[in-house]
Amino acid sequence: MLHFNSFFFVSRKMIWCPVYKAASSSWMNQIPLLTNYRKSQIKIFKQKYIQSNNLAYALAPPLPIIELKHFIDSKKTVKFLIVRNPLDRLLSAYRDKFELKNQYFHDHFGAQIVAKYRGLGNERFGSEFYKVNGSFNGCPLGDLECKSKRGNGSTPTFWEFVKSLLEDGISDSHWVPIHTTCRSVN
Description:
Layout: E1 7-9, E2 14-16, H1 24-34, H2 39-48, H3 52-59, H4 65-73, E3 78-80, H5 86-99, H6 103-125, H7 144-150, H8 158-168, H9 178-181
Helix pairs in contact: 1-3, 2-3, 6-8
């Protein structure tokens, strides 16, 4: 299992292929402990790389191709990934990236999803479903936290999000199937 975003810990003889929305943030935060850097060195890296995944890539950078091949082929190298139920992972990605109104995801996906599927949603669920002060506001029944975050209805509902995955194939590492990011290299 390997892909271009894998982390290589040569001194520990480990390769980790991150699956986003499957404990990846927890592991990213542990990467400094898996390296041979001293605490003082890690502190300097943390000042430069604020986001945990950027810090992780700085501390465990890709290997040159010849060294990489040797490392992967070694029987002593442990290769691993952490998985999650695909439907739980999909819902987690939706909640994290759309319900919490992540501006990047709203700009790159959300507005287009709403523009394309809101009309179909109104036909299927009725306009009351989408009203800001409506019964559901596009949220699961009784989910008041979602309802308060939904605001003006500009965030795609989970139904709209899934429709866009199935019909348009929108792709991001937070929800693509694991086999597209972590695959066997022989």
